[in-house]
Amino acid sequence: MTIKKQIKRSAAGLILLVSIFFSSCSDWLEIYPTSGLITEQYWHTKEDIEAVLMGAYRTFADMNAELVFYGEIRADMVSALSNAPNDLEDIKDGIIEPDNDYSNWNVFYTIINYCNLILSNSEAVLQDDPTFSEVQLTYYQSEAIFLRGLAYFYLVRIFDRIPYILEPTKSDDSQLYYPNVSGDSILTDIVAELSLIGKNSLPLDYGVLEFNKGRASYIAVQALLADIALWQFRYDDCLGHVQNVEDNSINGLSLMPNEEWRDIFFPGNSEESVFELQFSDADAESNLLFYYTYGTGVALEASDYAIEIIEEDLLSPRQEFMFDGFTITKYALTNSGNLRSDVEQNAANLIIYRNADLILMKAEALTMQDRFDEAELLINQVFRRSNPLLNDLEIERKRTSFEDAILLERAKEFAFEGKRWFDLLRMGRRDNYLRKDLFIEFVVSQFPEQDKFIKRSRLKDSNGWYLPIHEDEWENNPLLVQNPYYASFTE
Question: Which of 137, 168, 188, 337 could staple 117 via S-S, CB 3.0–4.6 A?
Fold first, then answer.
């Protein structure tokens, strides 16, 4: 049973006392509750909880293209074409104003509100539904905590200071205002919540591959915790969470063989996968990654830098399946190298975490502890998978050399997956912005020489590394304070 069919089944008994929050979601879940849901008429069965939970998963998945844009467009691995949305081109060019559509955080907060609704109302269902157990309650609440944590992690990396909302909006006319607060303080709270999710807090096996890879699991929670720890430069914690993934995965942190690398993306849900947002070819769901990278709406191409570094690999599946000329093919080809069929073009899962990611997280944490021999083995584990005929990398024994090697390997392995900008941000922020100038050079390297001076000047203020609060938000919410880099727009 696909996740989509599960969601339809979970909503089958609902009566029409709700409205659709987003019309684009209707192909995934015909009826699911919005913030205007009347509590007295809902939240009586476990199916009510499941319907809202599936709505949160679907809304996250519907952001597939945006998640890639946020993690790639300002970095150096993609170029924006002239037919890209104007607001996307503006971000690429560093001309970002508070009316830019991509500075609108509403969809993230829709996901957060679904999770808040579940966490606020699900316990009461125990009293009304005799088929609903304490164990199921823990499962659903843990999934909601995971999805909410993932949404907040994206928001912090995109905007830095954001509103932190833990209560659900229960009526459409609610006028609740929240200030934007430190992203680091939010992540500290998120980590405390996620850390309470133990091995028994989520199913060990959902019984369906799509669910095991597409719903929250203990190892997905640990992967998210490892990622947050690396972002916050807590290296011991990062290593501990990666170890938890390794200890609780069937095959540890094993990688797919070189010749099966393409299987990670087609059909997806591979043995290497930890968590990915799901799409079903049978249901022709609207994944836009094919459309924006290969199809009729192509907005992004591989940059010169991306082609240069990936072509350095020898007999690499990354080289064979990543691009054709400048055209990105990662979401367009099958594992045999053929173009996806019409139906399959909408079905490329977006992988959030996989083992190669965890291995390189571990290598980065070890590097920052000067454990270079251990880090080098891990970097080579990923490098050699795509370069089986080359000798191991030999890296100079200093942190900056290892950091550069990890950034390069991550750029090649996760090209166009929505990770590069966040990787560069992490490097640029580390050790009180020690390598800020290098961060700036990575970003401006893609522009013509005559444009680099102005591009550099725009990046000198690190507040400009984040997006502004959308003008609709700060006009409607008197408690919000605009990112100071964009403050002149609000005067």
Answer: 168
